[in-house]
Amino acid sequence: MNIDSKQLEKIVKLVANKIEDLETKPIAGSSRLGIFEDMNDAVEAAYVAQKALFELTLSDRKKIIDAIKAHLRSYIEEISMLAFEETGMGRYEHKVIKNTLVIDKTPSVEDLKAGVFTGDDGLTLLEMSPFGVIGAISPSTNPSETVICNAIGMIAAGNSVVFSPHPGAYKTSNRAVELINEAIQFVNGPINLVCTVDHPSLDKANIMMHHPKINLICATGGPAVVKAVLSTGKKAIGAGAGNPPVFVDKTANIENAARDIVLGSSFDNNLPCIAEKEAIVMDEVCDYLIFNMKNNGAYEVKDKELCLLEKLVLCDKGYPKKEFIGKNADYILSKIGIDVDPSIVLIIMEVSKDHPFVQEELMMPILPIVRVKDAKEGIELACQVEHGFRHTAICHSRDIEVLSEMGRRIQTTIFVKNGPSYAGIGVGGEGFTTFTIAGPTGEGLTSASTFTRKRRCVLVNGFNIK
Hints:
The protein is an alpha/beta fold.
Protein backbone atom coordinates (compact mmCIF):
# COMPACT_ATOMS: atom_id res chain seq x y z
CA MET A 1 0.00 0.00 0.00
CA ASN A 2 1.39 3.37 -1.02
CA ILE A 3 1.14 6.22 1.53
CA ASP A 4 1.88 9.74 0.42
CA SER A 5 3.65 12.29 2.62
CA LYS A 6 0.42 14.01 3.73
CA GLN A 7 -1.17 10.72 4.85
CA LEU A 8 2.05 9.75 6.67
CA GLU A 9 2.12 13.11 8.46
CA LYS A 10 -1.52 12.62 9.51
CA ILE A 11 -0.81 9.13 10.91
CA VAL A 12 2.25 10.37 12.83
CA LYS A 13 0.16 13.16 14.43
CA LEU A 14 -2.60 10.72 15.40
CA VAL A 15 -0.10 8.35 17.04
CA ALA A 16 1.64 11.21 18.84
CA ASN A 17 -1.66 12.54 20.14
CA LYS A 18 -2.66 9.09 21.31
CA ILE A 19 0.63 8.63 23.19
CA GLU A 20 0.30 12.07 24.80
CA ASP A 21 -3.30 11.24 25.81
CA LEU A 22 -2.21 8.00 27.45
CA GLU A 23 0.62 9.74 29.32
CA THR A 24 -1.69 12.34 30.83
CA LYS A 25 -4.40 9.94 32.00
CA PRO A 26 -4.39 8.24 35.41
CA ILE A 27 -3.13 4.69 35.28
CA ALA A 28 -5.48 1.71 35.41
CA GLY A 29 -7.46 1.38 38.58
CA SER A 30 -8.10 5.10 39.09
CA SER A 31 -11.29 6.83 37.98
CA ARG A 32 -10.30 10.21 39.46
CA LEU A 33 -6.92 11.86 39.91
CA GLY A 34 -5.04 9.94 42.57
CA ILE A 35 -8.09 8.05 43.87
CA PHE A 36 -8.09 4.24 43.65
CA GLU A 37 -10.31 1.44 44.82
CA ASP A 38 -7.43 -0.96 45.42
CA MET A 39 -4.65 0.05 47.82
CA ASN A 40 -2.02 -1.88 45.87
CA ASP A 41 -2.84 0.15 42.77
CA ALA A 42 -2.51 3.35 44.78
CA VAL A 43 0.93 2.39 46.09
CA GLU A 44 2.17 1.35 42.65
CA ALA A 45 1.00 4.62 41.13
CA ALA A 46 2.67 6.65 43.87
CA TYR A 47 5.88 4.65 43.39
CA VAL A 48 6.01 5.55 39.69
CA ALA A 49 5.23 9.19 40.49
CA GLN A 50 8.01 9.47 43.07
CA LYS A 51 10.58 8.22 40.57
CA ALA A 52 9.53 11.04 38.26
CA LEU A 53 9.61 13.60 41.07
CA PHE A 54 13.13 12.50 42.03
CA GLU A 55 14.40 13.62 38.62
CA LEU A 56 13.04 17.15 39.09
CA THR A 57 14.83 20.09 40.69
CA LEU A 58 14.05 21.87 43.94
CA SER A 59 12.73 24.72 41.82
CA ASP A 60 10.34 22.28 40.16
CA ARG A 61 9.15 21.09 43.55
CA LYS A 62 8.56 24.67 44.64
CA LYS A 63 6.57 25.30 41.48
CA ILE A 64 4.41 22.27 42.32
CA ILE A 65 3.82 23.42 45.91
CA ASP A 66 3.02 26.97 44.80
CA ALA A 67 0.47 25.58 42.34
CA ILE A 68 -1.14 23.42 45.03
CA LYS A 69 -1.52 26.38 47.38
CA ALA A 70 -2.87 28.69 44.67
CA HIS A 71 -5.40 26.14 43.42
CA LEU A 72 -6.67 25.09 46.83
CA ARG A 73 -7.36 28.68 47.89
CA SER A 74 -10.33 28.63 45.50
CA TYR A 75 -11.81 25.56 47.22
CA ILE A 76 -11.45 26.40 50.92
CA GLU A 77 -15.17 26.95 51.44
CA GLU A 78 -16.07 23.78 49.53
CA ILE A 79 -13.83 21.40 51.44
CA SER A 80 -14.67 23.06 54.76
CA MET A 81 -18.38 22.58 54.19
CA LEU A 82 -17.81 19.03 52.94
CA ALA A 83 -15.99 18.15 56.17
CA PHE A 84 -18.70 19.77 58.26
CA GLU A 85 -21.48 17.90 56.46
CA GLU A 86 -19.70 14.53 56.21
CA THR A 87 -18.50 14.30 59.81
CA GLY A 88 -21.19 16.32 61.61
CA MET A 89 -18.44 17.63 63.87
CA GLY A 90 -17.02 21.06 64.58
CA ARG A 91 -17.88 24.45 63.11
CA TYR A 92 -17.76 25.36 59.43
CA GLU A 93 -16.25 28.81 60.03
CA HIS A 94 -13.41 27.31 62.06
CA LYS A 95 -12.70 24.72 59.38
CA VAL A 96 -12.31 27.61 56.94
CA ILE A 97 -9.67 29.07 59.28
CA LYS A 98 -7.84 25.73 59.55
CA ASN A 99 -7.82 25.06 55.80
CA THR A 100 -6.62 28.59 55.11
CA LEU A 101 -3.92 28.11 57.72
CA VAL A 102 -2.42 24.97 56.18
CA ILE A 103 -2.42 26.53 52.73
CA ASP A 104 -0.74 29.74 53.89
CA LYS A 105 1.63 28.55 56.62
CA THR A 106 2.81 25.02 55.74
CA PRO A 107 6.52 25.24 54.82
CA SER A 108 7.72 24.33 51.33
CA VAL A 109 11.26 23.63 50.09
CA GLU A 110 12.66 26.51 52.14
CA ASP A 111 12.49 24.13 55.10
CA LEU A 112 15.17 21.92 53.54
CA LYS A 113 18.49 23.28 54.77
CA ALA A 114 21.67 21.35 54.01
CA GLY A 115 24.75 21.49 56.24
CA VAL A 116 28.50 21.35 55.80
CA PHE A 117 31.65 20.47 57.76
CA THR A 118 35.11 21.57 56.63
CA GLY A 119 38.48 20.86 58.19
CA ASP A 120 41.91 19.36 57.72
CA ASP A 121 40.48 16.19 56.21
CA GLY A 122 38.32 17.83 53.55
CA LEU A 123 34.64 18.66 53.21
CA THR A 124 31.45 16.84 54.22
CA LEU A 125 27.97 17.74 53.01
CA LEU A 126 24.86 16.89 55.00
CA GLU A 127 22.00 16.46 52.55
CA MET A 128 18.27 15.92 53.04
CA SER A 129 16.94 13.22 50.72
CA PRO A 130 13.45 11.77 50.31
CA PHE A 131 12.33 8.46 51.78
CA GLY A 132 10.43 7.56 48.59
CA VAL A 133 6.79 6.62 49.05
CA ILE A 134 5.19 7.60 52.35
CA GLY A 135 2.06 5.98 53.72
CA ALA A 136 -0.06 8.43 55.69
CA ILE A 137 -3.11 7.90 57.89
CA SER A 138 -5.41 10.92 58.23
CA PRO A 139 -8.04 11.54 60.94
CA SER A 140 -11.71 12.50 60.84
CA THR A 141 -11.10 15.56 63.04
CA ASN A 142 -8.94 17.34 60.43
CA PRO A 143 -9.58 15.36 57.24
CA SER A 144 -8.63 17.96 54.64
CA GLU A 145 -6.19 19.96 56.76
CA THR A 146 -3.98 16.94 57.50
CA VAL A 147 -3.99 15.83 53.86
CA ILE A 148 -3.06 19.27 52.57
CA CYS A 149 -0.41 19.90 55.22
CA ASN A 150 1.21 16.49 54.86
CA ALA A 151 1.08 16.49 51.08
CA ILE A 152 2.83 19.87 50.87
CA GLY A 153 5.60 18.84 53.26
CA MET A 154 6.10 15.39 51.80
CA ILE A 155 6.21 16.54 48.17
CA ALA A 156 8.55 19.42 49.08
CA ALA A 157 10.86 16.79 50.59
CA GLY A 158 10.79 14.80 47.33
CA ASN A 159 8.35 12.05 48.31
CA SER A 160 5.06 10.83 46.98
CA VAL A 161 2.34 9.88 49.46
CA VAL A 162 -0.48 7.36 49.76
CA PHE A 163 -3.21 8.30 52.21
CA SER A 164 -5.40 5.91 54.14
CA PRO A 165 -8.18 8.28 55.21
CA HIS A 166 -10.52 7.84 58.16
CA PRO A 167 -13.66 6.00 56.97
CA GLY A 168 -15.84 8.67 58.58
CA ALA A 169 -14.28 11.49 56.57
CA TYR A 170 -12.83 9.92 53.44
CA LYS A 171 -14.94 11.94 50.99
CA THR A 172 -13.41 15.13 52.34
CA SER A 173 -9.87 13.72 52.39
CA ASN A 174 -10.24 12.32 48.89
CA ARG A 175 -11.60 15.59 47.52
CA ALA A 176 -8.48 17.30 48.88
CA VAL A 177 -6.31 14.67 47.16
CA GLU A 178 -8.17 15.21 43.89
CA LEU A 179 -7.68 18.98 44.05
CA ILE A 180 -3.99 18.60 44.88
CA ASN A 181 -3.47 16.39 41.84
CA GLU A 182 -5.36 18.82 39.63
CA ALA A 183 -2.95 21.55 40.70
CA ILE A 184 0.08 19.35 40.00
CA GLN A 185 -1.21 18.67 36.49
CA PHE A 186 -1.52 22.41 35.83
CA VAL A 187 2.28 22.70 36.09
CA ASN A 188 2.96 19.36 34.34
CA GLY A 189 4.08 17.62 37.51
CA PRO A 190 4.07 13.83 37.89
CA ILE A 191 0.67 12.12 37.86
CA ASN A 192 -0.45 10.50 41.13
CA LEU A 193 2.07 12.16 43.43
CA VAL A 194 -0.67 12.04 46.04
CA CYS A 195 -2.86 8.94 46.14
CA THR A 196 -5.70 7.61 48.26
CA VAL A 197 -8.41 4.96 48.26
CA ASP A 198 -12.16 5.06 48.02
CA HIS A 199 -14.12 3.21 50.71
CA PRO A 200 -11.17 2.89 53.13
CA SER A 201 -11.04 0.00 55.57
CA LEU A 202 -8.75 -1.56 58.13
CA ASP A 203 -7.69 -4.16 55.56
CA LYS A 204 -6.70 -1.46 53.07
CA ALA A 205 -4.80 0.43 55.77
CA ASN A 206 -2.90 -2.75 56.67
CA ILE A 207 -1.96 -3.32 53.02
CA MET A 208 -0.55 0.20 52.89
CA MET A 209 1.38 -0.09 56.15
CA HIS A 210 3.00 -3.39 55.22
CA HIS A 211 3.53 -2.78 51.50
CA PRO A 212 7.22 -3.24 50.58
CA LYS A 213 7.24 -0.02 48.53
CA ILE A 214 6.14 2.10 51.50
CA ASN A 215 9.32 3.34 53.19
CA LEU A 216 7.88 5.59 55.90
CA ILE A 217 4.53 5.67 57.70
CA CYS A 218 3.06 8.86 59.12
CA ALA A 219 0.00 8.41 61.32
CA THR A 220 -2.18 11.20 62.68
CA GLY A 221 -4.79 9.85 65.07
CA GLY A 222 -5.41 8.19 68.40
CA PRO A 223 -3.20 5.86 70.47
CA ALA A 224 -4.41 2.72 68.65
CA VAL A 225 -3.37 4.12 65.27
CA VAL A 226 0.06 5.13 66.54
CA LYS A 227 0.56 1.72 68.14
CA ALA A 228 -0.36 0.01 64.87
CA VAL A 229 2.21 1.94 62.80
CA LEU A 230 4.93 1.42 65.39
CA SER A 231 4.38 -2.35 65.20
CA THR A 232 5.07 -2.54 61.45
CA GLY A 233 8.85 -2.49 61.81
CA LYS A 234 9.09 0.46 59.41
CA LYS A 235 10.25 3.99 60.17
CA ALA A 236 7.15 5.64 61.68
CA ILE A 237 6.08 9.14 62.66
CA GLY A 238 3.23 9.02 65.14
CA ALA A 239 1.02 11.98 66.04
CA GLY A 240 -1.13 10.82 68.91
CA ALA A 241 -3.66 12.20 71.34
CA GLY A 242 -3.20 15.06 73.75
CA ASN A 243 -4.93 16.30 76.89
CA PRO A 244 -3.72 19.92 77.08
CA PRO A 245 -4.02 21.63 80.46
CA VAL A 246 -4.25 25.39 80.86
CA PHE A 247 -2.94 26.82 84.13
CA VAL A 248 -3.96 30.28 85.37
CA ASP A 249 -2.06 31.82 88.26
CA LYS A 250 -2.92 34.83 90.45
CA THR A 251 -0.73 37.24 88.44
CA ALA A 252 -2.48 36.63 85.11
CA ASN A 253 -4.57 39.18 83.26
CA ILE A 254 -7.79 37.40 84.15
CA GLU A 255 -10.00 39.19 81.63
CA ASN A 256 -7.67 38.25 78.77
CA ALA A 257 -7.14 34.74 80.09
CA ALA A 258 -10.90 34.10 80.27
CA ARG A 259 -11.41 35.28 76.71
CA ASP A 260 -8.47 33.29 75.34
CA ILE A 261 -9.43 30.08 77.13
CA VAL A 262 -12.99 30.23 75.79
CA LEU A 263 -11.70 30.94 72.28
CA GLY A 264 -9.16 28.12 72.37
CA SER A 265 -11.28 25.49 74.05
CA SER A 266 -14.31 26.12 71.81
CA PHE A 267 -12.31 26.31 68.56
CA ASP A 268 -13.93 23.86 66.13
CA ASN A 269 -15.82 22.55 69.16
CA ASN A 270 -12.60 21.34 70.80
CA LEU A 271 -11.71 18.87 68.04
CA PRO A 272 -8.04 19.94 67.66
CA CYS A 273 -5.71 18.01 69.94
CA ILE A 274 -4.00 21.29 70.87
CA ALA A 275 -7.19 22.76 72.38
CA GLU A 276 -7.52 23.40 76.13
CA LYS A 277 -9.07 20.27 77.65
CA GLU A 278 -8.99 21.21 81.35
CA ALA A 279 -8.31 24.40 83.31
CA ILE A 280 -6.27 24.49 86.52
CA VAL A 281 -6.78 27.75 88.36
CA MET A 282 -5.41 29.29 91.54
CA ASP A 283 -8.20 29.58 94.08
CA GLU A 284 -7.94 33.33 94.70
CA VAL A 285 -8.68 34.19 91.05
CA CYS A 286 -10.93 31.27 90.10
CA ASP A 287 -14.28 32.97 90.79
CA TYR A 288 -13.29 36.02 88.78
CA LEU A 289 -12.05 33.85 85.90
CA ILE A 290 -15.35 31.96 85.79
CA PHE A 291 -17.27 35.25 85.87
CA ASN A 292 -15.31 36.51 82.86
CA MET A 293 -15.59 33.22 80.99
CA LYS A 294 -19.37 33.40 81.34
CA ASN A 295 -19.21 36.90 79.85
CA ASN A 296 -17.33 35.46 76.85
CA GLY A 297 -19.67 32.65 75.78
CA ALA A 298 -19.32 30.01 78.52
CA TYR A 299 -22.19 28.40 80.41
CA GLU A 300 -21.56 26.94 83.87
CA VAL A 301 -23.29 23.75 85.01
CA LYS A 302 -23.51 22.65 88.65
CA ASP A 303 -24.92 19.88 90.82
CA LYS A 304 -27.88 18.17 89.09
CA GLU A 305 -27.06 19.67 85.69
CA LEU A 306 -23.51 18.39 85.98
CA CYS A 307 -24.75 14.89 86.82
CA LEU A 308 -27.03 14.92 83.78
CA LEU A 309 -24.17 16.10 81.56
CA GLU A 310 -21.90 13.32 82.82
CA LYS A 311 -24.53 10.67 82.04
CA LEU A 312 -25.14 12.20 78.62
CA VAL A 313 -21.60 12.41 77.24
CA LEU A 314 -19.76 9.61 79.07
CA CYS A 315 -20.19 5.87 78.63
CA ASP A 316 -20.16 3.46 81.58
CA LYS A 317 -16.35 3.20 81.54
CA GLY A 318 -15.92 6.97 81.65
CA TYR A 319 -14.93 7.45 78.01
CA PRO A 320 -16.59 10.07 75.79
CA LYS A 321 -19.52 9.00 73.63
CA LYS A 322 -18.75 9.43 69.94
CA GLU A 323 -22.13 10.96 69.13
CA PHE A 324 -21.27 14.11 71.09
CA ILE A 325 -17.69 14.61 69.88
CA GLY A 326 -17.38 17.95 68.11
CA LYS A 327 -20.99 18.99 68.72
CA ASN A 328 -22.01 22.54 69.57
CA ALA A 329 -22.30 23.50 73.23
CA ASP A 330 -25.93 24.65 72.85
CA TYR A 331 -26.81 21.31 71.22
CA ILE A 332 -25.25 19.32 74.06
CA LEU A 333 -27.01 21.46 76.68
CA SER A 334 -30.35 21.02 74.92
CA LYS A 335 -30.07 17.26 75.48
CA ILE A 336 -30.18 17.81 79.24
CA GLY A 337 -33.07 20.26 79.06
CA ILE A 338 -31.10 23.51 79.02
CA ASP A 339 -31.98 25.92 76.23
CA VAL A 340 -29.35 28.58 75.55
CA ASP A 341 -28.52 31.00 72.78
CA PRO A 342 -26.09 29.76 70.08
CA SER A 343 -23.67 32.41 71.35
CA ILE A 344 -22.90 29.92 74.15
CA VAL A 345 -19.87 28.07 72.75
CA LEU A 346 -18.40 26.36 75.83
CA ILE A 347 -19.69 24.45 78.86
CA ILE A 348 -17.70 24.85 82.08
CA MET A 349 -17.92 23.31 85.54
CA GLU A 350 -15.88 22.93 88.73
CA VAL A 351 -14.78 19.37 89.46
CA SER A 352 -12.08 17.46 91.32
CA LYS A 353 -8.78 16.56 89.67
CA ASP A 354 -9.85 12.89 89.38
CA HIS A 355 -13.02 13.61 87.43
CA PRO A 356 -13.25 11.87 84.00
CA PHE A 357 -13.70 15.25 82.32
CA VAL A 358 -10.20 16.13 83.56
CA GLN A 359 -8.51 12.80 82.89
CA GLU A 360 -9.98 12.00 79.45
CA GLU A 361 -9.69 13.92 76.18
CA LEU A 362 -13.36 14.61 75.38
CA MET A 363 -12.99 16.60 72.13
CA MET A 364 -16.20 18.42 73.01
CA PRO A 365 -16.73 22.07 74.04
CA ILE A 366 -16.67 21.02 77.69
CA LEU A 367 -13.99 22.47 79.98
CA PRO A 368 -13.61 21.24 83.57
CA ILE A 369 -12.04 23.64 86.10
CA VAL A 370 -9.93 22.48 89.05
CA ARG A 371 -8.90 24.83 91.88
CA VAL A 372 -5.39 24.75 93.35
CA LYS A 373 -3.83 26.71 96.19
CA ASP A 374 -0.63 27.90 94.52
CA ALA A 375 1.56 27.76 91.39
CA LYS A 376 3.55 24.76 92.58
CA GLU A 377 0.41 22.65 92.98
CA GLY A 378 -0.96 23.94 89.69
CA ILE A 379 2.13 23.04 87.69
CA GLU A 380 2.36 19.60 89.31
CA LEU A 381 -1.29 18.88 88.51
CA ALA A 382 -0.88 20.13 84.94
CA CYS A 383 1.98 17.69 84.42
CA GLN A 384 -0.11 14.84 85.86
CA VAL A 385 -3.24 15.38 83.77
CA GLU A 386 -1.22 15.93 80.58
CA HIS A 387 -0.33 12.23 81.06
CA GLY A 388 3.13 12.57 79.56
CA PHE A 389 1.76 12.87 76.02
CA ARG A 390 4.14 15.83 75.53
CA HIS A 391 1.61 17.42 73.22
CA THR A 392 0.41 20.90 74.26
CA ALA A 393 0.07 23.02 77.39
CA ILE A 394 -0.98 26.61 78.05
CA CYS A 395 -0.16 28.99 80.89
CA HIS A 396 -1.57 32.42 81.77
CA SER A 397 0.73 34.34 84.09
CA ARG A 398 2.77 37.54 84.32
CA ASP A 399 5.34 35.83 86.54
CA ILE A 400 8.31 34.86 84.38
CA GLU A 401 9.41 32.25 86.92
CA VAL A 402 6.02 30.51 86.77
CA LEU A 403 6.02 30.54 82.96
CA SER A 404 9.58 29.21 82.83
CA GLU A 405 9.04 26.51 85.44
CA MET A 406 5.89 25.16 83.82
CA GLY A 407 7.50 25.15 80.39
CA ARG A 408 10.53 23.31 81.73
CA ARG A 409 8.57 20.79 83.77
CA ILE A 410 5.77 19.85 81.40
CA GLN A 411 8.02 19.22 78.35
CA THR A 412 5.24 19.51 75.76
CA THR A 413 5.89 19.99 72.06
CA ILE A 414 3.80 23.17 72.14
CA PHE A 415 3.75 25.54 75.11
CA VAL A 416 1.60 28.66 74.73
CA LYS A 417 2.02 31.58 77.10
CA ASN A 418 -0.76 34.14 77.58
CA GLY A 419 -2.78 33.26 74.50
CA PRO A 420 -5.32 30.78 73.14
CA SER A 421 -4.03 27.29 72.41
CA TYR A 422 -4.30 27.66 68.64
CA ALA A 423 -1.58 30.32 68.70
CA GLY A 424 0.76 27.33 68.99
CA ILE A 425 -0.03 26.23 65.42
CA GLY A 426 0.27 29.69 63.91
CA VAL A 427 -3.22 31.20 64.35
CA GLY A 428 -2.36 34.55 65.90
CA GLY A 429 1.07 33.23 66.90
CA GLU A 430 4.39 33.23 65.08
CA GLY A 431 5.78 30.17 63.32
CA PHE A 432 4.76 27.63 60.71
CA THR A 433 1.78 25.35 61.08
CA THR A 434 1.30 21.60 61.10
CA PHE A 435 -1.55 19.21 61.77
CA THR A 436 0.75 16.28 62.49
CA ILE A 437 2.28 16.89 65.90
CA ALA A 438 4.42 13.84 66.60
CA GLY A 439 4.73 13.60 70.36
CA PRO A 440 4.87 9.79 70.74
CA THR A 441 7.75 9.36 68.28
CA GLY A 442 9.49 12.64 69.15
CA GLU A 443 9.58 14.57 65.87
CA GLY A 444 7.35 17.29 67.30
CA LEU A 445 5.87 19.78 64.84
CA THR A 446 6.45 18.11 61.48
CA SER A 447 7.42 19.93 58.29
CA ALA A 448 9.14 19.15 54.99
CA SER A 449 12.50 18.43 56.65
CA THR A 450 10.83 15.82 58.89
CA PHE A 451 10.09 13.73 55.82
CA THR A 452 13.70 13.46 54.70
CA ARG A 453 16.60 11.11 55.33
CA LYS A 454 19.77 12.79 56.57
CA ARG A 455 22.65 11.74 54.32
CA ARG A 456 26.37 12.48 54.51
CA CYS A 457 28.58 13.03 51.45
CA VAL A 458 32.32 13.11 52.24
CA LEU A 459 35.07 14.54 50.03
CA VAL A 460 38.43 13.55 51.49
CA ASN A 461 41.27 16.10 51.35
CA GLY A 462 39.41 18.42 49.03
CA PHE A 463 37.98 21.96 49.13
CA ASN A 464 39.84 22.77 52.33
CA ILE A 465 40.83 26.36 51.54
CA LYS A 466 41.33 27.95 54.97
